[in-house]
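Example for tutorial group B:
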C-alpha cells in the first residue's frame, strides 16, 4: 500500500464528507493504493455515524472510536499502530489542511528518501493574538531546544516513512513534538515543506491558552527525557554530589573553626551556616535517592493502558 492517511478528530461531523471526497479524488487521480483512517477521539456529535457511512461506501475508509476524549496524541498513537501504508500522512479534519499537498509529500518520502516532512503554514488564517503570536514563540523555543530548524512544529499536516511512526511513542500531549521524538529515535532526514493553510469552514477551533502552556511544559519534558530519560542517575547523581560536597565543606569549615581557629566562640548550632550545611547535605542525599528510584523505575516499569477503544471499522 502506498499511503495511509491518519486523521484524528473531535466533533467534526460537518467537514468529514467533504474531506473524504477531497482525499479520495487526490488518491484516485494519482492512482495511489491507500487507506483513510479516522480516529474519533470521543466526539459527542455525529462524527462516528458519518465515518460508518463512509466505510460502507468505501472499504478504504477505516475507523477507530475512543470511549471518551483522550487527546490528539493518543488518537495518533492508536492510528500509527494500525497503518499499513509505506508513507503515512497525518492531517486535521477541519479542512484547514489541503489534501492537494499529498502527492508532493509522498514524493519527498518515497522518492527523495526523507524520514519525515513537516508542513509549514507560512501564511495563516488564524487569530494573530490567540494563535499566531503564541505559535511563533512556541516554535522558536522548540527550535532552540531540539536543534531542528522547523518553523511549524505543531502543523497537523506531516508525512512520515512507515518506520518512523512504528518507532515513536506518542503520549501525553507530545503530538506537537513528533519530529523531536523521531530525531531522538535516530531518524535524521527531517525537513519541512510550505503548505497551504485554509480558513476554518465548519465548527470552532479547539486551541486555547492551556494548550500553549502545556506545549512549553511538554517541551521541557522532552528535553529532559532525551538527555536523561535512560540515565536519570547522571543528572540526579551529579546534583546530589555537588550539593552534598557543598554541605560537607561547610561542615568541615565549622569543625576546623571550632577546634582550632576560635574554640571559645559561639556553639556550632548557634551559627546559621550550620543549618545551611545540614540542609544542603540533606538535599544532596535526596537527589541521590531520586536518581536511584529513577533507575529502579526505568528497569521495572511496564506500559499502562492509555486509552480504551470502543469500536473499529475495517481493521
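The residue assignment follows.
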Amino acid at each position: 500500500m502506498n499511503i495511509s492517511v491518519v486523521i484524528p478528530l473531535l466533533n467534526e461531523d460537518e467537514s468529514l464528507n467533504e474531506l473524504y471526497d477531497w482525499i479520495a479524488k487526490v488518491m484516485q487521480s494519482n492512482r495511489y493504493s491507500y487507506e483513510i483512517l479516522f480516529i474519533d477521539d470521543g466526539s459527542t456529535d455525529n462524527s462516528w455515524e458519518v465515518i460508518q457511512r463512509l466505510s460502507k461506501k468505501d472499504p478504504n475508509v477505516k475507523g477507530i472510536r475512543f470511549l471518551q476524549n483522550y487527546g490528539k496524541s493518543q488518537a495518533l498513537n492508536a492510528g500509527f499502530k494500525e497503518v499499513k501504508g509505506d508513507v503515512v500522512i497525518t492531517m486535521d479534519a477541519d479542512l484547514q489542511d489541503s489534501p492537494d499537498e499529498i502527492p508532493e509529500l509522498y514524493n519527498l518520502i518515497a522518492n527523495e528518501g526523507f524520514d519525515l516532512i513537516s508542513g509549514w503554514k507560512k501564511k495563516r488564517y488564524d487569530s494573530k493574538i490567540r494563535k499566531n503570536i503564541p505559535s511563533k514563540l512556541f516554535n522558536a523555543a522548540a527550535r532552540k531546544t531540539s536543534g531542528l530548524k522547523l518553523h511549524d512544529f505543531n502543523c497537523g499536516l506531516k508525512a512520515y516513512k512507515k518506520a518512523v511512526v512504528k518507532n515513536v511513542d506518542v503520549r501525553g500531549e507530545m503530538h506537537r513534538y513528533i519530529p523531536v521524538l523521531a530525531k531522538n529515535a535516530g531518524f535524521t532526514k527531517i525537513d519541512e515543506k510550505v503548505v497551504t493553510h485554509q480558513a476554518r469552514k465548519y465548527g470552532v477551533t479547539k486551541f486555547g491558552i492551556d494548550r500553549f502552556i502545556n506545549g512549553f511544559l511538554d517541551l521541557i519534558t522532552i528535553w529532559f527525557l532525551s538527555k536523561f530519560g535512560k540515565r536519570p542517575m547522571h543528572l540526579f547523581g551529579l546534583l546530589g554530589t555537588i550539593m552534598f560536597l557543598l554541605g560537607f565543606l561547610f561542615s568541615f569549615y565549622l569543625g576546623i573553626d571550632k577546634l582550632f581557629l576560635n574554640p571559645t566562640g559561639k556553639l556550632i548550632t548557634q551559627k546559621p551556616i550550620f543549618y545551611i550545611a545540614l540542609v544542603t547535605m540533606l538535599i544532596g542525599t535526596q537527589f541521590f535517592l531520586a536518581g536511584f528510584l529513577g533507575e529502579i523505575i526505568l528497569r521495572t516499569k511496564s506500559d499502562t493502558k492509555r486509552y480504551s477503544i470502543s469500536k473499529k471499522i475495517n481493521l
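The chain has a mean pLDDT of 88. Compare this with the pattern of hydrophobic and polar residues in the output above.
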